[in-house]
Amino acid sequence: MLGKFTWQAETVWQNIPIDEDDFEELVLKACGLILKGDVRIGKVPKERAIC
């Protein structure tokens, strides 16, 4: 499933190509990964300095 995402080393953003025949299925699977807390999905922001 994850093979259809476009993975690029120079960015943390990944894409599910809208022209894929199974776009909706891929989106639902990605949502499932988010709900399960998959570490490959999302980014923990760095702590901000308090001024």
Question: What can you tell me about this protein's structure?
Answer:
The chain is mostly helical and 51 residues long. It has one helix at residues 23-35. The chain contains one helix and no strands. It has one domain (1-51). The chain is elongated and about 50 Å long. Helix content is 25%, strand content 0%.
Task: List key phrases describing it.
51 residues, mainly alpha, 1 helix, 0% strand
Number of domains: 1
**Can you summarize the main beta sheet?**
none
Intertermini distance: 44 Å
Q: How many DSSP E strands?
A: 0
Order of helices and strands: H
Tally the helices. 1
Shape: elongated
Coarse structural class: mainly alpha
Helix content: 25-40%
Q: Which helices and strands, and how do they pair?
A:
Layout lengths: L22 H13 L16
Q: TL;DR?
A:
This protein is an all-alpha fold.
